[in-house]
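Worked example 4.2. Below are the chains of a multi-component assembly; read each line carefully before continuing.
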Amino acid sequence: MPDIYQLRCRECGKLWGNAPRSFCEDCFSPLEVSYDYQALKSIAVKADLARRDFNMWRYAEFLPLPEGFQFPNSVGGTPLVASRHLAKKWGLRNLYFKNDAVCFPSLSFKDRVVATALAAAQRFRFKTVGCSSTGNLANAVAAQSAQQGFDACVFIPADLEPAKILNTAVYGARIVRINGNYDHVNRLCAQIADRFQWGLVNVNLRPYYSEGSKTHGFEIAEQLGWRLPDNVVVPMAGGSLITKIAKAFGELVRLGWVEEKPVKFFGAQATGCSPIASAVKRGLARFEPQKPDTIARSLAIGNPADGPFAIKLIRESGGWAEDISDREIVESIQLLAETEGIFAETAGGVTAGVTKKLLREGRIGSNDTTVVCITGNGLKTTDAIVAEYPLTEAIAPKLEAFEAYLDAQLVTPAVAQG
Amino acid sequence: MAVTIEIPTAFRRFTDGSPKLDCNAATVAEALSILTSQYPGLSRHVRDDSGQIRQFLNVYLNDEDIRFLGGEECAVKAGDKVLLVPSIAGGSR
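Applying the procedure described above to all two chains together yields the following structure tokens:
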């Protein structure tokens, strides 16, 4: 059976077949995977899902997978958590957290994109794969390369959180630390992909890679009972995920799997790196790149490649973009953990905090169904909050010592303010 | 000033395969216009219909994105390198 998908230029529309390339050689705009939706409609059957495991491979027909592809280990299939405490606190009826902090195998939504990128790497017979990364992506590339037998080489900014470096190194990946920020690493990788025959998942395999993000959106719709939400709040780094969730929703509507309805897309950034949010708020035609300065290093992309598409989507959907300070990020991480039992990384603090801000601004209605996307695990960014929790003094293993301890604890423990 | 423009592989079909162009220019804008007058096929890939540098093309002067240097009118000095890099990666948390 011929492929029902191929690369298409997002600007001029030229078709490029399937190859490890990420931009149109005619107009140099980004390529994306486009599908023959007639053909897709004939092979994708909603009823088939009942027989499939709850992970991202259940939407295989919607993904650019090579013929005869053997599904590797389970990826995705994360919980959609119906908020109880935070919803009540914020006066919202239907608030959900899509929790990719527990995405397998490496505890971030990047596992989804790497899964489809490595499928493409297999197809194009790459032996070495790699990426430029601020951490989560490197973890995912390293873990899945180990599973599937690829050699992995990842490029990271030298000042990355130690936990994220360790979480890559442990899988045996080669790590190249670059003296520079993510945008410098990114530029170098674009040049490396130009020179070497490597499958860089977010460079020359990027169109295939980003399709994996759609599964985050498919799962949201399915977990809501095949309905679309009214609002989605999405963290933005390069700006890709938010557009791919929109693509996923659009495909489900196109195939008649969900009813069409307007969905507002809200983008969340840290104030210290907010080129997309800033462009939306200031009504700019083009975003202005920034030099990142924030604890939310997984969102610290000052020159977001998908920024123009994210801005367009947010505007056209009637949504908005907001940003919050590093202090608010820390408080939001604590709030989410204390109220919902979800320990998110800094990016999750960003989306939770931005959601609160959007509520205050009256952009999210109390009866709306709102889904907040949590994309990474708090265990990876403990350095951002460790100062909030000084160690308490140890006591002797004696009952009287505990009684003395209780006496000293007459002050009620602090609770994060929502 | 003698500067070098480095040309990515994808652009080289418009430059007869040449990976770089040495030229004399006072600003990045001038260097780019020398490039596109030498290789007219590249013009529409460097600038859009409104004459702006294309949205998905990043231009660097040595290590810095020219948007941090005040844009394409930034001055160049002898030995500088101008890099053209398609905006392809990103979203790479």
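Take a moment to check your reading of the output against the notes. The interface with chain A takes residues 8-10, 13, 44-45, 54-58, 60, 63, 65, 67-68, 83, 85-93 of chain B (CB under 8 Å). The beta strands of chain B are 2-6, 20-24, 57-61, 64-65, 81-86.
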